[in-house]
Design brief:
heterodimer; A: 282 residues; mainly alpha; 1% strand; B: 345 residues; alpha/beta; 6-stranded mixed beta sheet; 4-stranded antiparallel beta sheet; 14 strands; ABC-type transporter activity (chain A); membrane (chain A)
Chain lengths: 282, 345
């Protein structure tokens, strides 16, 4: 299959880049540091959920660093080849431009899976021998969810990379997207909550709390936090464990919406990028 | 530089006919068809109203100086760029709407490409094979283009010539029906350029249509059946090499060394039958004329009181003709009325 050929080639290529090697080492180091920091005292054990739910892992590492890594590895996926001319080699072969865009998403997401998996598994194994009582299922599930988050950011970056004609624009776009989704989104959350939580202005068509919920969902890292939080505490798609039936249904709806949102991020940016790329002269 | 210069070119009759002839009709199928194709980039017209047909099994040399629109035309065949107007068909399919199907049966050596620096030569060829959905021996391909010993080295460390060989190898994967080669000899040393021509010849014998561009006539004249010459986005000539040779056929360049000659001394020479032009820098007189007019030219110069010390003749070359059409300097032959040759200006 054509898409598979492109993805495989792209994985082979990306996985050999020094960037990826460096990122893997960096990630292993960071996770090790975090595991060390949250280690339990003498004679105590730390549960998997406590580890993964900790602010270090969830906020500092995964939702801050994973988007950055994904954007760095993917911003030039298409436009880099376009500028160097290797895209002509790719398109001289019988690949459609759609194969190129989605093959790139798959290939780069696969390449990022290497540092993320190694980064989690290596320190995880070391810690499991020691004081951590890891539940392998939860740990591996969490890694898979993290890969879903990184794939969403890869899709955003590849989409952008397909739409623009120069590497400089692609770098600008990646930096802009990162600031939008990570620091900026985080910074406006608190004031917005104060403002909208009390009902918000009258001209809003929906309630302030609804809008907050929507904003939380739209950001891929927000959706990830919802899904991974529920998963780690063992309540993903298990509404029965919530306090009341209404709360259970609300949680369930949010989980489904969050998954749908991550799925949308996987598909929509590459499709928009493809739409621009299809019309472009190379 | 042009090591093939003066080679005998393949005659048109020698066309391989295996799959070129359609059953019954006895007519050649068109492998490449451009009709009224124009490509504009903003105010710049890269290709203007181009009509061009290349028959199946033909080896077509696409000539012209850099910037004449050759690569733009090739990029339209491959759907890298889209024509502003006109239709492009390759193997009877629409080059834009059915581009993937076209490229499945085409081998391409594009211009301005780059290899994947981190992948080895073998990985490149394997990628081409996987892309064309076929199994094959990547090493045999690398052997054929002469870089088998570098198969496991990263292509980023390859020289320009090796990269060119690698991409030619990728183009040959899967026995394509058409080979589209954009400046295939660039970056190759004379021996490499010769090997390249041999590969083109082998492919042509297999029945492959070959469409290749060059800004050097010497690279194409020994292998092609027909050439087209582009200049400023227009096809200014289209003919067989034989036809082009005939166009310059009888003309010779006569270089006469004299004691002193002025413009006025040349009037008698210019008036002669068979003389198309004459010029002097004072010490030498250069005359383009038919070969049987030579003695009359010498006689006319002596009649004008010029002392002839020495003279030599050179056959007008295809290079001169090419330069005339392509608008380069250094040639002053006229764009003659050549049968079967389209002259735009």
């Amino acid at each position: 299959m054509s898409l598979e050929a492109v993805a495989r080639k792209d994985f082979q290529d990306a996985v050999r880049s020094r960037w990826l090697l460096g990122l893997t080492a960096f990630f292993v180091l960071l996770v090790s540091v975090v595991v060390y920091l949250v280690r339990p005292g003498e004679g105590q054990t730390l549960s998997t959920s406590a580890l993964l739910g900790s602010v270090f892992i969830r906020d500092a590492l995964v939702t801050t660093l994973i988007p950055l890594i994904a954007l760095v590895v993917s911003y030039n996926a298409v436009v880099g080849e376009r500028e160097s001319g290797s895209l002509k080699l790719l398109l001289a072969l019988p690949h459609s431009r759609a194969d190129v865009v989605f093959g790139k998403v798959v290939g780069r997401a696969g390449a990022i899976a290497v540092p993320v998996s190694v980064g989690f598994l290596l320190p995880g194994l070391v810690a499991a021998i020691g004081p951590l009582s890891l539940r392998p299922g939860t740990f591996i599930g969490y890694i898979l969810l993290t890969l879903l988050l990184s794939a969403a950011f890869v899709a955003i970056a590849v989409g952008f990379s397909s739409a623009v004609a120069s590497n400089r624009l692609a770098i600008g776009g990646a930096v802009g997207l990162y600031f939008l989704f990570v620091p900026l989104w985080g910074a406006i959350q608190f004031p917005l909550r104060l403002y909208l939580g009390t009902g918000g202005p009258d001209w809003l068509p929906i309630a302030g709390s609804e809008l907050l919920r929507l904003l939380r969902l739209i950001n891929p890292t927000g959706s990830f936090k919802i899904v991974s939080g529920e998963f780690v505490s063992g309540t993903l798609f298990a509404a029965g464990q919530a306090g009341s039936e209404a709360a259970g249904q609300y949680a369930m709806q949010m989980e489904i919406a969050a998954f749908a949102m991550l799925g949308a991020w996987l598909l929509v940016p590459p499709l928009l990028g493809l739409w621009r790329f299809e019309g472009a002269d190379l | 530089m042009h090591d093939s210069y003066g080679n005998v070119c393949r005659v048109t009759d020698g066309l391989p006919k295996s799959k070129a002839e359609t059953a019954g009709s006895g007519r050649y199928m068109a492998a490449i068809e451009l009709e009224g194709v124009t490509k504009r980039y903003g105010d710049v017209t890269a290709v203007r109203d181009l009509d061009l047909t290349v028959e199946e099994g033909e080896v077509f040399g696409f000539l012209g100086p850099n910037g004449a629109g050759k690569s733009t035309t090739i990029n339209m065949l491959l759907d890298f760029v889209r024509p502003t107007s006109g239709t492009v068909r390759v193997l009877s399919r629409d080059a834009q709407a059915e581009s993937v199907a076209v490229r499945r049966r085409t081998g391409v050596l594009p211009e301005g490409y780059d290899v994947y620096e981190r992948l080895t030569g073998r990985q490149h060829v394997e990628f081409a094979m996987r892309s064309k959905e076929l199994d094959g021996d990547a090493d045999a391909v690398l052997e054929r283009v002469g870089i088998a010993d570098a198969a496991d080295r990263r292509a980023g460390g390859y020289s320009k010539g090796m990269r060119q060989r690698l991409v030619l190898g990728m183009a040959l994967v899967g026995e394509p029906e058409i080979l589209i080669l954009d400046e295939p000899s660039s970056g190759l040393d004379p021996a490499g350029a010769k090997e390249m021509r041999e590969i083109v010849r082998d492919e042509a014998e297999r029945g492959t249509t070959v469409f290749f561009s060059s800004h050097v006539l010497g690279q194409v004249e020994s292998v092609c059946d027909r050439v087209g010459i582009m200049r400023e986005g227009e096809l200014v000539a289209e003919d067989s090499i034989e036809g082009l040779r005939e166009a310059v056929g009888g003309e010779e360049q006569l270089v006469v060394t004299v004691d002193a000659a002025s413009e006025a001394d040349l009037e008698g020479v210019r008036a002669l039958d068979g003389v198309s032009s004459a010029a002097t820098d004072g010490g030498t007189v250069t005359v383009s004329c038919e070969s049987d007019a030579k003695t009359k030219v010498i006689g006319a110069l002596e009649d004008a009181g010029v002392t002839v010390k020495d003279f030599s003749t050179e056959e007008a070359s295809l290079e001169d003709l090419f330069l005339t059409y392509a608008g380069g300097d250094g040639a002053d032959a006229e764009s003659g009325d050549v049968t079967g040759t389209e002259v735009a200006e």
